[in-house]
Specification:
The longest helix is centred in the middle third of the chain and has 38 residues. Strands 4-3-2-1-5 form a five-stranded antiparallel beta sheet. The chain is built from two helices and five strands, in the order H-H-E-E-E-E-E. The protein is an alpha+beta fold. The protein has two domains: 63 residues; 47 residues. Strand 3 and strand 4 form a beta hairpin.
Length: 120
């Protein structure tokens, strides 16, 4: 079930506050339909589930990148320098996190995983 446009921009607490306000201020002669209420709750659960899934995928990606970087320690790689140009070879000394991204330390150079062309 797709979330209505803009719903993902509000938090769970805000959504629940809106739902409670809607229930408190509904017309007693025309109460909220049970199907509408269930639909809104299902949408809330869907959005919450998607947010949790995204968080899990982000953590999994982080761990994968760390593992890939750690596997390269002590190995010689060829990488494209940050400014461009021909690939350069060097031995990976360590893996670090810089600005939230994993980078390989090759001598004095910080090399992003995406810059690696080959492992020699």
């Amino acid at each position: 079930m797709a979330a209505p446009a803009g719903l993902s921009a509000i938090g769970t607490d805000q959504f629940l506050q809106l739902l409670v306000a809607q229930l408190q201020n509904q017309d007693p002669l025309s109460p909220l339909d049970n199907n509408q209420l269930l639909s809104q709750l299902a949408t809330l659960n869907t959005v919450s589930g998607i947010q949790q899934l995204n968080a899990n995928f982000s953590e999994m990606l982080r761990l994968t990148q760390l593992t890939q970087g750690a596997d390269l320690i002590g190995k010689t790689i060829r990488y494209t320098p940050a400014g461009g140009g021909d690939p350069v070879a060097g031995t990976v000394n360590s893996v670090q996190v810089q600005n939230g991204a994993f980078v390989l330390q090759v001598g004095d150079a910080s090399v992003g995983l995406s810059q690696v062309v080959s492992v020699v």
